[in-house]
Amino acid sequence: MSLAMVLMLSASITGRAAPDDGDITFVIEDDHVVLLTDDMSVAISTLFPAAAVKETDALDNSSYGFVFSSILGYNESDVYGLVLDEVPYHASMEHATWTAETPVVVDEGDGTSTAYVSMHSLVDMNKRIAFEDGNPDPGTPGIEIIEGWAAVTVDFIISSSNFSSTFDGAIDEGLYPVNGSTELKFDITIDMNIPIDADHLALDIGLMMMDFGNFTPTAMDEQYIFEGFQSDEVSISDPYENETTEDDELIMHSFQHRDKLKQLFAFNDTDESSFFSWASGCMAHNLTAGDTFEDLLTYYRTDGEALKVYISAPITPETAQITHDPSLGVFTASRGGIIELPDGSIIGSSAMSTALGILVGAVVAGGTGVAVAIRRSASQDQSETVVLEKNRYYRGK
Fold first, then answer.
1. Rounded mean pLDDT of the chain?
2. What CA dihedral angle connects 110, 384, 339 and 19, to 10 degrees?
3. Residues 281/257, Cβ–Cβ less than 8 Å
4. Per-residue b/e over 318-352, b at no fewer than 16 CB within 10 Å?
5. What are the C-alpha distances in Å from 97 to residues 124, 197, 321?
6. How buried is 309 (Cβ within 10 angstroms: 0-12 exposed, 13-18 middle, 19+ buried)?
7. Which of 185 and 166 is assigned the larger pLDDT?
8. For residue 299, how many other CB atoms are within 10 A of its CB?
């Protein structure tokens, strides 16, 4: 069914009543989709990759969100690593043309549901070069456009029950658990058509509080910070500060990954209300070596409006595909996610029974072959294995 047809069918929908227990419903607006679970409202832009989450019964439009704004190609082998002013390759996600697929909600048959929303675009890459001939200002950067550089797909997944994905090659740390009803997982897959002269690709993701469905920094006077749970500290970042030196050089921090696959920044306004997570490794397909699991680097800084997170994967001219696994969630008073911190303490507004879920950050050895997900029922402690192929979950394989 086309998106236009769904828009017509949804035109008569009024209000956004909370779904029945275990159900996921959706409403299509002019430029975004709204998904409703028992505990969380999710807005997903259909114009560019961005999403916002808030508790279903929140009293206002204040929400926690991200914008996936660009992909940066650079050489980590250079002395200073990722230096934004000197990045030679830049592919804008916000200015690309995106196709958003019709949302699909699958009844799992056990009182739970899973919703899928996918969007994709064929994006160009801008290469910064210094023209010596024919340039009115020789030696200054020019731009070469690499048309059709890569196909980028963003697959959003939310389930009313807890599930996990694990990846072949992620030894001892291959589990990425996702909280049911309170966490939105989004897989970012980059299929590269044309190699570039860089040894790393970084996702440029901005985290910020938003007005729900607006996908820009909130216009409200929101006072909040970000807490980064790193291996050596809990860092504090103020999104309203533009981190620069006295010489106006951009300050970049290196995030020290924990010894868990799942990493974490928490939004903190009055308490830890929401979180952004990502895997410290990614799946990569190499034309000669096949599928591999690659360790990532993460950088971050604040720019006066948002916390900018740069998740960086190694590439070679033989790299054909990369898949990242971030997520965005809320801690709710009724249910609450659980986050295991480096010091062994737990944050989150309530504790889920271990029979109902898995601690975020728990370590489970990965299996072999393709990635798999283990779904646990909210009503009973039974595991079901489903296979993840091309960012889709299939049952009974």
1. 78
2. -20
3. no
4. ebbbbbbbbbbbbbbeebbbbbbbbeeeebbbeeb
5. 10, 25, 20
6. buried
7. 185
8. 18
- Pairwise CA distance, residues 101 & 105, whole Å: 12
What pLDDT does 358 receive?
27
Among candidates 127, 73, 129, 69, which has minimal Cα distance to 96?
69
Mean pLDDT of 337-365: 33
Confidence of residue 337 (pLDDT cuts 50, 70, 90): very low
Q: What is the dihedral of CA 92, 94, 97, 98, to 10 degrees?
A: 120
How far apart are alpha carbons 289 and 167 in whole angstroms? 17
Region for 278 from its dihedrals, namely left if φ exceeds 0, alpha if ψ lies in -120 to 50, beta otherwise: beta
d(CA 186, CA 54): 16
- Determine contact, residues 206/66, Cβ cutoff 8 Å: yes
Residues 6+ apart with CB under 8 A from 129: 88, 141, 142, 143, 144
Instruction: Return d(Cα 107, Cα 221) in angstroms, integer.
Output: 40
Would you state the pLDDT for residue 116? Answer: 97
pLDDT the model gives residue 326: 96
Rounded-to-integer distance, Cα 264 and Cα 327, Å: 10
Beta pairing, strands 327-330 & 339-340: unpaired
Place of tokens 């992620």: 170
pLDDT of 382 higher than 50:
no
Domain ranges of the chain: 3-395
Contact by Cβ (8 Å): 173, 164: no
Contact, 250 vs 299, CB < 8 A?
no
pLDDT at 229: 94
DSSP strand pairing (339-340 vs 346-347): antiparallel
Q: Which residues contact 83 (CB under 8 A, 6 or more apart)?
A: 74, 250, 252
pLDDT tier at 156, thresholds 50, 70, 90: very high
Q: What percent of the chain has pLDDT over 70?
A: 72
CA distance 171 to 181: 28
Summarize pLDDT for 51-101 with one digit per residue, the tens. Answer: 999 998 888 888 999 999 999 999 998 878 899 989 999 999 999 999 999
- Listed in sequence order, the DSSP H helices in the chain are 3-10
Instruction: Kindly report the pTM of this predicted structure.
Output: 0.80
* Bridge partners for 235 per DSSP: 228
